[in-house]
Amino acid sequence: MNGNDSLSDILNGVRSGKISVREAVAKLRSMPYEDLGYAKIDHHRSLRTGFPEVVLCQGKSSDQVAEIVKRLAARNPVVLATKADEGAYEAVRRVVPNAVYHNEARMIVVRSPESAPQDKTEDANYILVVSAGTADIPVAEEAAVTAEAMGSRVERVYDIGVAGLHRLMDQKDKLDNANVIIVVAGMEGALASVVGGLVSKPVIAVPTSIGYGASFDGLAALLSMLNTCAEGVVAVNIDNGFGAGYFAHLINK
Amino acid sequence: MNGNDSLSDILNGVRSGKISVREAVAKLRSMPYEDLGYAKIDHHRSLRTGFPEVVLCQGKSSDQVAEIVKRLAARNPVVLATKADEGAYEAVRRVVPNAVYHNEARMIVVRSPESAPQDKTEDANYILVVSAGTADIPVAEEAAVTAEAMGSRVERVYDIGVAGLHRLMDQKDKLDNANVIIVVAGMEGALASVVGGLVSKPVIAVPTSIGYGASFDGLAALLSMLNTCAEGVVAVNIDNGFGAGYFAHLINK
Amino acid sequence: MNGNDSLSDILNGVRSGKISVREAVAKLRSMPYEDLGYAKIDHHRSLRTGFPEVVLCQGKSSDQVAEIVKRLAARNPVVLATKADEGAYEAVRRVVPNAVYHNEARMIVVRSPESAPQDKTEDANYILVVSAGTADIPVAEEAAVTAEAMGSRVERVYDIGVAGLHRLMDQKDKLDNANVIIVVAGMEGALASVVGGLVSKPVIAVPTSIGYGASFDGLAALLSMLNTCAEGVVAVNIDNGFGAGYFAHLINK
Amino acid sequence: MNGNDSLSDILNGVRSGKISVREAVAKLRSMPYEDLGYAKIDHHRSLRTGFPEVVLCQGKSSDQVAEIVKRLAARNPVVLATKADEGAYEAVRRVVPNAVYHNEARMIVVRSPESAPQDKTEDANYILVVSAGTADIPVAEEAAVTAEAMGSRVERVYDIGVAGLHRLMDQKDKLDNANVIIVVAGMEGALASVVGGLVSKPVIAVPTSIGYGASFDGLAALLSMLNTCAEGVVAVNIDNGFGAGYFAHLINK
Amino acid sequence: MNGNDSLSDILNGVRSGKISVREAVAKLRSMPYEDLGYAKIDHHRSLRTGFPEVVLCQGKSSDQVAEIVKRLAARNPVVLATKADEGAYEAVRRVVPNAVYHNEARMIVVRSPESAPQDKTEDANYILVVSAGTADIPVAEEAAVTAEAMGSRVERVYDIGVAGLHRLMDQKDKLDNANVIIVVAGMEGALASVVGGLVSKPVIAVPTSIGYGASFDGLAALLSMLNTCAEGVVAVNIDNGFGAGYFAHLINK
Amino acid sequence: MNGNDSLSDILNGVRSGKISVREAVAKLRSMPYEDLGYAKIDHHRSLRTGFPEVVLCQGKSSDQVAEIVKRLAARNPVVLATKADEGAYEAVRRVVPNAVYHNEARMIVVRSPESAPQDKTEDANYILVVSAGTADIPVAEEAAVTAEAMGSRVERVYDIGVAGLHRLMDQKDKLDNANVIIVVAGMEGALASVVGGLVSKPVIAVPTSIGYGASFDGLAALLSMLNTCAEGVVAVNIDNGFGAGYFAHLINK
Amino acid sequence: MNGNDSLSDILNGVRSGKISVREAVAKLRSMPYEDLGYAKIDHHRSLRTGFPEVVLCQGKSSDQVAEIVKRLAARNPVVLATKADEGAYEAVRRVVPNAVYHNEARMIVVRSPESAPQDKTEDANYILVVSAGTADIPVAEEAAVTAEAMGSRVERVYDIGVAGLHRLMDQKDKLDNANVIIVVAGMEGALASVVGGLVSKPVIAVPTSIGYGASFDGLAALLSMLNTCAEGVVAVNIDNGFGAGYFAHLINK
Amino acid sequence: MNGNDSLSDILNGVRSGKISVREAVAKLRSMPYEDLGYAKIDHHRSLRTGFPEVVLCQGKSSDQVAEIVKRLAARNPVVLATKADEGAYEAVRRVVPNAVYHNEARMIVVRSPESAPQDKTEDANYILVVSAGTADIPVAEEAAVTAEAMGSRVERVYDIGVAGLHRLMDQKDKLDNANVIIVVAGMEGALASVVGGLVSKPVIAVPTSIGYGASFDGLAALLSMLNTCAEGVVAVNIDNGFGAGYFAHLINK
User: Is F15 at the interface with chain E, CB within 8 A?
Assistant: First the structure.
């Protein structure tokens, strides 16, 4: 099944006799995925959701990551792997030489030659990624690299926490002109509410595990963002820059 | 300041002598809000974010709600109040006779005559609101009524929990054609992940407090949605149908 | 689609021309559920899982419960509704006169005349429901009534907490001869571990919200049961007698 | 012992023979408190900490509250009782007719005639009490009434949440001129951080239990305030307006 | 006492004079366990529960593990040790040369020559072990190895998370034909509910600690599984593959 | 079995032929408890632990409480029921007229005429029950009434919280002369540590649910007491005055 | 002040002129502690509580531990240090050569030559330390070594968890004859309830951090022990063997 | 903009023609911060809050810390960096040679030559920093070093936990004469309440993560301090010595 066959196509084939009943049952069953035993690579996903499966490296061996990335890269123009350490990258590069490692974002990106990203013109819609502090940048980069890999133009403004609001105000134009805004913040995560109150654009809040003591590894920021008094703000998991970047691109595209 | 004055307009006025320095300082200061003492009604918000302040009734007296709604209704084409009990509605109706109460959603909506919602054509982009169970409907309705009041076309599909996936599959067309999907679910909240894996559209997950025991008043569903293995899913606070409807409209408009 | 049609039946019908392609698509789509708007009654479930959908009354209006039970009762030999208060039962009885209310278990059971439960012979396999205290009995009864309604023989032994182990030991024969054991306990929930260590049969532990202070509404018992040092013990949600009774019947049948 | 006797005074009295050893032992022991059996009224506290014991009504019967307030009022110029419902106030008024009930703050205040509060001049140092929302006002009033009863000038600014920052900015002068600022906020509690970043004055943050879902009865606001990225911000217990008002007065006096 | 003596046997021996009262008391007391000081090896357990004590290596020194395994292996046809690192295995192998280490499952299995597992015929009842992701495989393997060591036939299907439901649907036959199903999933653990809704067989859900942020080391998956809206699903502790495998075998045998 | 028969007695009876094997098995089995169906009254407990079963009224119907108390009172000199509301007491008094209700402690005490408590002489060892506040007294009384019913002399000192240490110091003699000390405190529970640091006697700490906000219904006091820096301090459950009184009597007797 | 001076002694000295007022003030002030800057060694504690200050090594440098132990050893017959790693012991041994390290208990014990412990006769009252598993032994040893160092006779019974109750029953005599029982258990901690139900002696429960997943580092065992349905059971902090041993000795002495 | 320009100054400049409209817009925008890309250094903060931005090193690379400190040191008389390890200090020293590392406090302090701290006279107002234990000293030092760097006189009293109250009482004069008191305590954190009850000065409580088991990394101490029964006590985050020192200086200055 090449993924484009519709249910009616198959049934018409049966009616016309081109496809036997047995074949039809098999076709309906055999969705396009590859089975590696330890992983079932969901090649169908790009047909279904518009983007191939993304590899979360955490909990997988470097060899498993490399093999999965290789298989995905063989069929997709862009492949992403997140929470990747350097060991995983080394393993990937051995089998997919054009893989690129984004150090701060801890991501591996593979692009087929024909999918080279075009330079976005200055007037393309953009996603603005905002971080409250310097320590939140790795998560912010995960969001930015993800959205860029998917094809969005991304602008970045880092370290504009609410303890110095003028730094934020100074970026008011960038906020106003963005199509979607991602706010990345640890500690008390107040930046999401402040940005949410200033703009009319959708805001995706990403709590980070930055902080100590009663931040409880990001719980404080997460609860803060979920309880925001600003409208137009949603949240993703703690440190889930990828999820925010992916969602932002869905809106922005 | 009428909200359209830019900073440059005021400064040009100062330069040309049309506006005195004293006036300019006042203009820059006097943002348009009304002060009731117990509330500062943010009339500026609709200029800033595209929609007027929404009244969360919880924790306010019925009289406070009524007064705030009245003031907002005097200046805005549409006013929303959420988590409103019947007492609050009675108080509002006394001062704003055309207020409408959405019983299941527990919302008050006020529309000025000229803002009567036009019937959406069949081919308008729509937001799909999906609930996992019958008991989740009040939160789903809060989302739906909010988005409709803001001007979006909304479709509803209720009671399609994951324990009977075929009910969900049967709605595959509605899912595929939606512009944004809101998934409302209590208990284990798995529906968000399942829907997220089926579609290429942004999914906004709303955990509800439906459940008992280790649901801990919606915590189980919330954590489930934050940890979704599906891409393109974000979350709002437990029972926050309003937040999801508002955000969905921002994307859909 | 009557639920018995297999995929091959439909495809064979297409091939032989008895079923048009259009009809086949419809058949494949139209799974057997009834749509009440606020509920999609999953009549297909009894075909799929061997037992019809069970109605959780919590969060539904009495009228909704009554309507759903009526629809289910029209097609199924046995219908169960859990966490039902007397109001829900009154509403059900008006439309399904032969509905029976189990007061302690807070359950409604409807049986068609032809499905009258046969008296189980003394040597039928039985499920043993054990409660640690008197206050745990409502949850224990929910488990027992569920399993009986599904067709299992059930024996009950109540109030044999670990602070008086001889009461438990005295029931050793009943424990040894059971096919499955359900242990219902609040407070520290230790009974599950003690029973689990004594028998070779599967033990299903049900924590209850009985207790005060640091029982945190059943959390202490739940954690205790999940961390049991005994083998052959699994757990369900706090106060979920229904879930334990259902699962026990799956094993016992 | 009148509370002013120093240790040396007593010992000198012993040396000079004015006080017998037995008397000295008794004096050293008998600190000034009154024993009602169910309460030991700490009359010594005003000597020790500058203000008499404050009565937390929660968990005490109305009669107990009334008796304790009566005893304190007999010896102190000002007496406060917090978390007082109307029943407690009725009981107090029967025995202390000049007791005043602050309805919104749920406080009882008793002043002796000679301690009538003087009108504060416009240039007295003041404590600014700021609330994020209308629903936070009861806690804010508890703080304000407490500080006023202790002798501080208090200014109030209510409903200036971060979703409409201009309302806050409009109060910049009041913020800058305050001697201490109390920020009362529920939901995500971000106002504390925003105010803390704007001013050079000490900020006391009071989380409130206003909110729903993942606010967990004020936990979200509390964690947010404890993890603030602003400097010069401390926190008190959820809904503890009294504690903030008391502390603010210690700084302001 | 050889474990087969019943209470009546002993008492009959006393009556007939074959056993002295003193001996009888001793017999009744001396249950068959071996005391190593730091461990009391419960040889009686296989008589009581049908399977010997299983060694949880966590928190024990390698030497302690080795000694306990050696003693158990001397009396039992099969011995299992869980959560075993390689150091523990090395220590065991020195004293029990035929011990086998299952690397992914982190288990040690010892079989006596006569207990060599027979190849299961194709039509034997089987337990199906399903994992949501690749990273969940170690816990899934712990379940599978346990059940196999106890004598069950086990089938494995790994990496069929709900974000790509077709991978699950493709395994529908395997699901339908299984006698018991173990679902192993981290993150939001939704797979348990989805599988539970599809089948009529008992489902044992195993939450894993795979995930990050608000997964809180498996808490999200655990709560999700406990609150499942599917019937016929029970849960075990986070990462407790052993417990699930053991319980599944009790049902399957 | 009258509870005094030892295992040897029974076996000797078997040997001598006075007791048949069948009778012996029955005797060994039939431990002295009464089975009411919903409760198995453990008459054996007073033989085993020195005091009869104590009835926790919470979660039991008034009729159940009354019946259980009646049965216990028929065989024991003293019977206690805890967490009893007035309804339970009324039900008990109808069947056990000499039952006494301790209103503040919410306990029912039944004494047989012959067990009338003797007045303790002044020099009997005593248990000192200390409460931090007035609102903690009900829990303190539960502890005191329990220990008195069991036969201990009890002294009470209430409302000596750490915010007025001199009230505590003034009771130094009572502290020093006590045999055991029970400290009952809510809020931050610091009194347990302070008392623990002053004395050489065992201290039993009882956290109460008195407090608000971040006291989380007694969690703050409980954690405080468990983490005490003082030596010689143990804790019981939140609001468990009974448990502390019972334990104190075990030490004091 | 030698610690034996009573308040009256000092005052009599003042009266008689033997002690000047200045000296008396100093005497009353100068309680016997040594100030090392980073530590104030409380030599007074042994006078006050019957045993010298015990050193918790966690969070102190090895040098700090060594210095504090040296100072305490100079004035006390027995000194204890807990949670001590080998580095701390090496540092101590350099300055206190007769210090002994209890490896499993992670404790340092110093005895002066004259305080050599006498062999306890067989009929001395003893404390029984019971552990549920092998992995709980380090905490159990901390309890045992503490009580022995303080002068109590201690008996140990390890690895008698509730999954093999006969191992516990076999120790019934030891349980019945003990004066106090310490139960050390991780995982679900059920052993405390089981032992508590069998005996009439005070039981001190020590939860341990042994377990995984939902044991949450000992929380499950702690909650279990606090919610015990057995009477006569109290708890200490997770892993606090020292606290249990200390308290047990207070009762046993 | 030099930070001293008021809004009126700029507007007057515009009116008089000294400043062009374009320049004015720029001036109003360009708040004084330096943008390093990964950090926006808030030079404006010292104008706004009276003290420059403080660098939290956690989560920043050593190079980032060094660069930020260098930039701040170029414009401010005093610069602080907290939670700094030695690596960060080495990096800073390479670019700011006069940086000083406070080892115990884990802080870097940079002073310009002209800001050398003057020796405080004996009669200057002082902040008293009190620690409960030796292990709390690093957090206490963070508070003390911060306040000293800001210009306050600080006195220290360490290791005066509530288990030896006389050590605290002995410091009564120091407590009474302080202007503000910082109480640093882990474990149960009771010292804050005890100190708060003794004095009339504001008390800032700092919970530390010192403790084990149910201290839950400082949660027990934090909750204890938030629920204090003493008046005049506020709290900061766990281990946040810096926050306490900063706040204390705001009061003390």
Answer: yes
C-alpha B195/C-alpha B187 separation (Å) is 16
Helix (H, G, I), strand (E, B) or coil at D249: helix
For residue G113, give Cα distances in angstroms to G89, G91, G97, G153.
19, 21, 12, 19
**Quick one: CA dihedral F91, F97, F101, F107, positive or negative?**
negative
pLDDT tens for residues E161-202?
887 777 787 788 899 899 999 999 999 999 999 999 888 899
Contact A162, A133 (CB under 8 A): no
The kind and range of the H/E element at D79 are strand D78-82
Question: Which residues 106-125 of chain E have a CB within 8 Å of chain G?
Answer: none
Asked if C222 lies within 8 A of B214 by C-beta distance, the reply is: yes
Q: How far apart are CA D34 and CA C147, in angstroms?
A: 63
Give A75's strand partners. none
Q: In what order do the strands lie in the sheet with G126-131?
A: F153-158, F126-131, F180-185, F203-207, F233-235, G233-235, G203-207, G180-185, G126-131, G153-157
* Cβ-based neighbour number of residue D4 at 10 Å: 7
Partner-chain contact E243 C233, CB within 8 Å:
yes
At D206, is the secondary structure helix, strand, or coil? strand
Instruction: Give tens-digit pLDDT for D121-148.
Output: 777 899 999 999 999 999 999 999 999 9
Contact partners of H by the rule of 3+ C-beta pairs under 8 A? A, B, D, F, G
Mutate to test the interface with E, among F7, F9, F15, F18 (most CBs of E within 10 A): F15
> Phi first, then psi: what are they for A8, rounded to 5°?
-65, -40
Q: How far is C-alpha G39 from the geometric centre of its chain's CA atoms?
A: 20
- How far apart are alpha carbons E84 and G59 in whole angstroms? 31
H124 Cβ contact list (under 8 Å, min separation 6): H153
Q: Which residues contact D158 (CB under 8 A, 6 or more apart)?
A: B37, B38, B39, B40, D130, D131, D134, D136, D137, D140
Decide if A8 contacts C28 (C-beta within 8 A): no
Which tokens sit at E38? 């730091």
Residue C173 has pLDDT above 70, yes or no: yes
Instruction: Tell me if chain C has a CB within 8 Å of the CB of E58.
Output: no
Dihedral sign computed on CA atoms, order D75, D80, D81, D84: positive
pLDDT band, residue D165 (cuts 50/70/90)? confident
Indicate yes or no: CB of F210 within 8 angstroms of CB of D45: no
- Could you tell me if E14 and F15 are in contact, meaning their C-beta atoms sit under 8 angstroms apart? yes
- Continuous segment of H or E residues that includes residue B82: strand B78-82
pTM of the model: 0.90
Which DSSP category does H19 fall into?
Answer: S
- C-beta separation of F142 from F245 below 8 A: yes
Cα dihedral: G46, G51, G53, G54 (round 10): 170
Confirm if G222 and H214 have CB atoms less than 8 A apart.
Answer: yes
Residues 6+ apart with CB under 8 A from B195: B130, B168, B175, B181, B183, B203, B230
Confidence check: pLDDT of A203 > 90: yes
> What Rg, from alpha-carbon coordinates, does chain D have?
21
C11 close to A (CB below 8 A): yes
DSSP β-ladder status, F107-111 and F100-102: antiparallel
Kindly tell me if the per-residue pLDDT of E118 is higher than 90.
no
Choose among G59, D67, F19, G223: nearest CA to H210: G59
pLDDT averaged over every residue in chain A: 87
Is residue H241 within 8 A of residue H107, CB to CB? The reply is no
Model pLDDT, residue H123: 79
F177 backbone dihedrals φ, ψ, rounded to 5°: -90, -10
Residues in chain B: 253
Average pLDDT, chain D: 87
Chains touching D (at least 3 CB pairs under 8 A) are A, B, F, G, H
CB within 8 Å: D227 and A213:
yes
Cα four-point dihedral sign F13, F17, F18, F24: positive
Question: Roughly what angle, to the nearest 10 degrees, separates helices D219-226 and D191-198?
Answer: 30
